[in-house]
Amino acid sequence: MTKYIYKYFSTEGLKKSKSVSNSSRLIIREAELYGVDWKIIPGTQIVTLTYKGQEKSYYHQIPTTTTALALYATHNKKITSNLLQQAGIRVPRGFRVRKDSTNEYLNDVYENLNKPLVVKPTDGTWGENISLDITTPDQYFEAVDLAFEYSIKKKRGVIVEEMFDGTEYRVLCTRDKVIGVLKRVPANVIGNGIDTIEKLIKLKNSEEIRGIKGSDKSHLRIIKDKKLKKYLTEQGLDLDTVPKVGTQIFLRKVSNISQGGDAYDYTDLVHPSVKEIALKAINTIPGLAFAGVDFMSSDITKKQTKDSYVIIEMNDSPGFDIHDMPYQGKNRHAAREFLFLIFPELREMKLK
To answer: Is 141 in contact with 164 (CB distance < 8 Å)?
Structure first.
């Protein structure tokens, strides 16, 4: 893994920085299989690929075909929501508040939305500083403060929106093709009637598929932090509780794999209308070449209606290792599809 490291310039020359993302690591390995040369440009997080004299690059999971206009739109969740809504795609009803918004405006936002609410940073990632199931003013103001801890710049803001009652999925796609669909399940353990929740977490963290951030594993380990303990308390549980056999105990409200969740491949189970909506969504964002669409549905196996789904987010740099290494299900070879997006001619090549 040592060669998959970003480097930076220091007074002592080039020094090792952080590891490349696991998804980027998978792209590089696919490139090697197809005879594509690669290098990480020193002092940057840009990977350059060279094939038959053609040189193309990407940054994390963003190809050069994704434009600055697309990044402008996707880096602000409210702009994304506005674009999708005006294209006739269902999004949660909500408002943006800023650091300098008055208490009067904050109250108006709260009063004008149906509860429960979701509060999140406009530019957040990894499911950080998101609050769900907000039903009281005290919870609301606490959640807004938490979200602003992530978005500290004055002009950045927080999204407050109505919570949709459904299951969350991640649809990975280009502008022409859906690569895979995953069901994302919040961090959880299954009781065996013997072990405590703390022991069950330890056992689950020992699974081969799980690692720490920066590792070559697609799923991250469950962290026993204050939020986890608080959520257990809300359920009348704690780390010493011994769940009954077969009882599923959820440890977080958010379904992010980065927060210890599980990814189940659902690509072959979704109704065709889901893929149609996802492709319409990515084509609604000007210049967005590759994206992860966060899709919520009351039943993803049935034809989607205006009341049965919402799109809650569009990710311009989606981590797709979970599509190649799901917790359960098929490998969708997302890294290969990303490479084909950069060099379409490779699709016709037969590997030995």
So the answer is: no
For residue 244 the two structure tokens come to 């009954």
- Which range of residues forms the domain containing residue 100? 93-163
pTM (predicted TM-score): 0.87
Residue at which a domain ends, from 260, 286, 310: 260
Residue 148 sits at φ, ψ, to 5 deg, of: -70, -20
- Comparing CA positions, the residue from 142, 139, 144, 135 lying closest to residue 114 is 135
Does 247 map to a domain? yes
What are the phi and psi torsion angles at 271 (to 5°)?
-70, 145
pLDDT of amino acid 124: 57
Final residue in a domain of this structure, among 243, 260, 277: 260
Query: What is the percent of the chain with per-residue pLDDT over 70, rounded to a whole number?
Result: 95
Q: What is the CA radius of gyration of the chain?
A: 21
Residues 105, 156 within the same domain: yes
Sign of the dihedral through C-alpha 260, 265, 269, 271 = positive
The residues, ordered by sequence, that sit 6+ positions from 20 with a Cβ below 8 Å of its Cβ are: 4, 5, 6, 28, 40, 45, 47
What integer is the mean pLDDT of 51-68?
95
Q: Does 340 map to a domain?
A: no
Query: What is the DSSP pairing of strand 13-19 with strand 37-40?
Result: unpaired
Distance CA 342, CA 43 (A): 23
185 vs 128, more confident: 185
Identify whether 207 is part of a domain.
yes
